[in-house]
Backbone:
């Protein structure tokens, strides 16, 4: 099997700012696998700085190149769902692991001639849905008016729920203004770990805004403090950063650390762990939704397939290609219907064509490990 690592940088159509910083472009590593003229693709959306997690394109390149790909090649492993066990010898680095597993799932499904959504569903012993409801994540803006304009535009495009980023100094006043202008929209807030338990009284003020949930208010590896906070808040807590794999879903449920989980396959070490986490949450009555890391169309196509599973009952952060990039890497681009849904593709594998000339145009470095 030929394996290529391809580091890319894609300019965003509009900057994306969270409590940990502002991004102007998306940096990622694509994994391209080829066997008998069939090509599979995966994406490691680690980004250029260790702001969301400790992983970056630099650490992921190193871990893939020096450890994961050599071990995979030596093993002769065939089935993508064996990778979490095969890669257990590397502690952490879930996004690096996820990218190669995604590529193998795409290859596996294309070899069988079936859609990736069907393969993931079969792996989980579950049905898959033909279309998924979806939402949009809007970053911190220079001025509140700019955010209001973007919320209006997103509602006009049909997105089923609006997520806004918050941090100290861009929270209560902003939410108040949003509710004044948009009293009835489905709204949620994502803090990306900007608060601590000593902000509990402040966070209780979020209860006034009828939010679907508040995402990751406290520290990025914490479960215990989130459980304390959840006992004091009416608003459901949704965990993102703190859920690093299927077992964290069980731990969070046992502690009462959240009522909702954001599943990002990159964050939990790949598609098979994402399916496992989905089911662990379902068994404990915790609804999930599919998060994103500003993926190119390649990673987003994987997210669409995953989000077709039944416990992804809340709209996710899977938005149209045009919301991120002037020209996506896939054809056709991801489109969102006027009623806020995305059709799950029925073709083999990820179901979108990767345009290799566009990949080449945005490539920073590339290596073949054959
Ligand atoms: O916390 O969900 C997050 C983007 C980059 C890093 C972290 C997050 C996000 C998003 C955007 O909210 C999700 C997307 O539209 O891909
Ligand atoms: Mg988040």
Residues:
């Amino acid at each position: 099997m030929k394996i290529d690592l391809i580091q890319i940088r894609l300019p965003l159509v509009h900057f994306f700012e969270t409590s940990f910083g502002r991004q102007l472009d998306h940096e990622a590593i694509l994994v391209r696998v080829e066997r008998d003229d069939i090509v599979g693709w995966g994406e490691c959306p680690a980004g250029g700085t260790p702001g969301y997690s400790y992983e970056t394109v630099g650490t992921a390149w190193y871990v893939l190149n020096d450890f994961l790909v050599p071990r995979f090649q030596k093993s002769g492993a065939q089935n993508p769902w064996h990778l979490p066990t095969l890669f257990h010898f590397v502690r952490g680095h879930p996004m690096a692991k996820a990218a190669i597993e995604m590529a193998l799932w795409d290859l596996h499904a294309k070899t069988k001639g079936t859609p990736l959504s069907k393969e993931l569903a079969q792996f989980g012993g579950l049905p898959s849905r033909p279309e998924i409801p979806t939402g949009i994540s809007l970053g911190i803006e220079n001025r509140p008016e700019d955010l209001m304009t973007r919320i209006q535009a997103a509602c006009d495009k049909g997105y089923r729920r609006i997520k806004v980023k918050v941090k100290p100094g861009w929270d209560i006043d902003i939410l108040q203004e949003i509710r004044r202008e948009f009293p009835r929209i489905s709204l949620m807030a994502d803090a990306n770990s900007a608060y601590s338990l000593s902000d509990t009284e402040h966070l209780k003020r979020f209860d006034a805004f009828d939010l679907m949930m508040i995402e990751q208010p406290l520290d990025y590896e914490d479960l215990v403090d989130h459980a304390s906070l959840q006992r004091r808040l009416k608003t459901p807590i949704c965990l993102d950063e703190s859920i690093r794999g299927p077992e964290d879903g069980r731990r969070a449920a046992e502690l009462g650390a959240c009522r909702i989980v954001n599943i990002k396959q990159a964050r939990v070490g790949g598609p098979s762990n994402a399916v496992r986490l989905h089911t662990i949450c379902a068994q404990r009555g915790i609804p999930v939704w599919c998060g994103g890391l500003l993926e190119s169309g390649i990673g987003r196509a994987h997210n669409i397939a995953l989000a077709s599973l039944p416990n992804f009952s809340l709209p996710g952060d899977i938005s149209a290609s045009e919301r991120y990039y002037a020209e996506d890497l896939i054809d056709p681009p991801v489109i969102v219907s006027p009623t806020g849904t995305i059709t799950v593709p029925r073709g083999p594998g990820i179901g979108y064509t990767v345009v290799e000339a566009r990949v080449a145009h945005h490539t920073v470095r590339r290596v073949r490990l054959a």
Summary: The radius of gyration is 19 Å.
